[in-house]
Write a structure and sequence with these properties.
472 residues; 43% helix; 20 helices; 5-stranded parallel β-sheet; single chain; alpha/beta
Length: 472
């Protein structure tokens, strides 16, 4: 049997890294794409020199991980990093099969002229195609401290699990989530609707912002979708076939050895239909006929694959329950709900808006819960490091709540138990503030504006919810 010659592999490497022999830039297609708001945080991590760690870029399928890598390469080249010191490989290429990272690095040196001890940046895309990649990467980081390694891949669940298990102290995970609402507008260069004036955020045209927000809930989340009418007209095929089914039918079964794929798929469809609703292990088990331990494992798998986010419950006193039998499940992108089941009726937008509100938070992963007690519920409760509530938000998609909010939300009851925390509820288009008898303030503002500002702050790594200064 003939072996693949080194010259063939190195020729492929040169084609993937055209800046080695040509202009110091990436391909025109990548240069034309706008950078995601998360790029700034990712670039800072890549340029970090004081910590010797590899970066593992993870996230759902089709959210732009490869584009983010190419944008990072362009930034490095633009900052004067020698072109031969920057290498990118997509490991789904059959020519690289069965190579270790050490062997890959040797081929790169021979193809690019990089010296063995010269500082370099190594980008390894689709790293899940490298068998035992986590062991190879850990050893390579230890042996080559002068080389910054950035790995990425589509099998998010596998990357997450193996990074946690094997990369302690050697890997830094970076989650690239589906597009948040701020990014959805920014990538389309839709600006000027929201601005800060005299220390307060204002929306110049809430009708226009809401129109974009409804479109975001329908097609947002995936950069490729917002620029393709063809995909928008066939969201079911694109999202269901190219994103969801590849995870349910290939990634998760291969990783966890799942035999009954139909059982897993049925559970996911049930959760997707009930996004933003409270469910229980007992109820899911009775409905599906699947044991509770199996349900727990499936939920773990689906969350590891970034298809869902589980939010746990606290009581009115903000104490967690010892047995987490009841919880809420949110899709990581509201567009998945539309793609799976079609356009949603007006009365169903509330659950979709709540899903959108939570989806702005997935990168930050703060201590978010929902509070439910016998006669009430608050959708979002943030607990600080000592498990005390700092702020809470009730998500609504209605303006009628402003006239009689105390009867239509349970915030007042929750604030009686926690009078010093910041509190707000969202509306469809109204903004303002109300003062309670004890002097505490309840803010309110449109759900679309809340999602825009939260997405902006989380993507930039800014402190969230320090204040809610919203102008009318």
């Amino acid at each position: 049997m003939h072996k693949i010659p080194a010259s063939q592999r190195q020729a492929r490497m040169r084609s993937e890294n055209p800046w080695w022999s040509g202009p110091p830039r990436t391909g025109r297609t990548y240069r034309a794409m706008r950078r995601r708001a998360y790029f700034r945080r990712f670039a800072k991590l890549v340029k970090e020199e004081n910590v010797r760690r590899a970066i593992v870029l993870m996230g759902p399928r089709r959210v732009g991980k490869t584009v983010l890598l190419q944008h990072m390469i362009q930034k490095l080249l633009g900052q004067g990093i020698p072109p031969h010191s920057v290498a990118y490989l997509s490991l789904d290429q059959p020519l690289y099969a069965n190579l270790s990272i050490e062997e890959i690095a040797r081929h790169i040196r021979e193809a690019s002229g990089l010296q063995a001890t010269e500082p370099a940046f190594l980008f390894l895309d689709e790293i899940q195609y490298l068998r035992e990649w986590e062991r190879h990467l850990k050893s390579f980081v230890d042996a080559h401290p002068h080389i910054k390694c950035i790995a990425s891949g589509s099998a998010a669940a596998a990357l997450r699990m193996k990074s946690i298990e094997s990369g302690a102290g050697r890997f830094t995970d970076f989650l690239l989530p589906p597009l948040n609402f701020y990014e959805f507008l920014d990538l389309q260069n839709i600006r000027g609707l929201v601005r800060r004036q005299n220390g307060a955020w204002t929306c110049r045209n809430i009708s226009a912002l809401n129109k974009h927000f409804i479109r975001y809930m329908s097609i947002g989340g995936y950069p490729e979708v917002i620029f393709s009418e063809t995909i928008q007209n066939d969201m079911e095929r694109y999202v269901r076939s190219d994103i969801i089914e590849k995870v349910l039918l290939r990634d998760l079964p291969n990783l966890y050895g799942i035999r009954d794929i139909q059982e897993l798929n049925s559970l996911f469809m049930s959760l997707a239909w009930n996004t933003a609703q409270e469910v229980s292990l007992d109820g899911l088990s009775q409905e599906s006929g699947v044991s509770k331990p199996t349900i727990r494992r499936y939920l773990e798998y689906l969350e590891a694959a970034f298809l869902i986010k589980i939010v746990h419950r606290v009581d009115r006193s903000a104490r967690r329950f010892r047995r987490a039998n009841n919880f809420k499940v949110y899709l990581t992108s509201p567009a998945m709900r539309i793609a799976l089941f079609g356009p949603i009726a007006e009365e169903g937008i509330g659950a979709l808006a709540e899903t959108a509100a939570f989806s702005q938070w997935f990168h930050a992963s703060p201590n978010l819960y929902y509070s439910r007690w016998k006669n009430g519920e608050v959708d979002i409760v943030h607990l600080n490091a000592i498990q005390q509530p700092e702020w809470c938000v009730e998500v609504k998609w209605s303006d009628s709540i402003v006239k009689n909010w105390q009867a239509k939300t349970h915030l007042k009851s929750f604030l009686h138990a926690h009078p010093k925390i910041r509190a707000a509820f969202t509306t469809r288009s109204k903004a303002g503030r109300m003062e309670l008898e004890d002097g505490s303030i309840v803010h309110y503002f449109p759900t679309s504006l809340y999602c825009y500002l939260t997405g902006l702050q989380v993507a930039r790594g800014e402190s969230q919810h320090k204040d809610w200064k919203i102008g009318k």
